[in-house]
Amino acid sequence: ARQQLLLVAIGVSAAILALHEVSLPLYLRADPAGMATGIEYLGEGPSGGAAMGTALLACGLLADALPRHAAASGLVAAAASSALGLRAAAAGRRAAQPGVTSVGLVASQGGLGALLGLAVPMLAKSALAQAQGALRGSSVDEWAAVVE
Any residues with CB less than 8 A from the CB of 93 and at least 6 apart, and which? Predict the structure, then answer.
């Protein structure tokens, strides 16, 4: 069940990343008046990628040091940050506040990086532990068959 939850978290991260790369730029540039004024948002392009990469690296390094319950809490916080960041970006765009939109984009990208940085190592650890348990179980069964 834990592995399935982590796979869902990774799938949601992929969906949010696709939203950031395809739909969100179209939404931000949909207003012809905004295009004419040349508004640039901080969380777009390289700065958003830097926020995501930094969060991914930091959380990926912390994933091994954190206890399982703390990492699970981090997953929830990262997902909330990403979702609320998208909400802030949409609200800032509707209110014509580029600062709010930029903070929302950076928060969403950072939350996405943190989510992936925690979920992927946790999934790998869980799969490795399951595989090691299966190997131990099979070697015990083989040893019991040899002894009998």
Answer: 27, 28, 31, 101
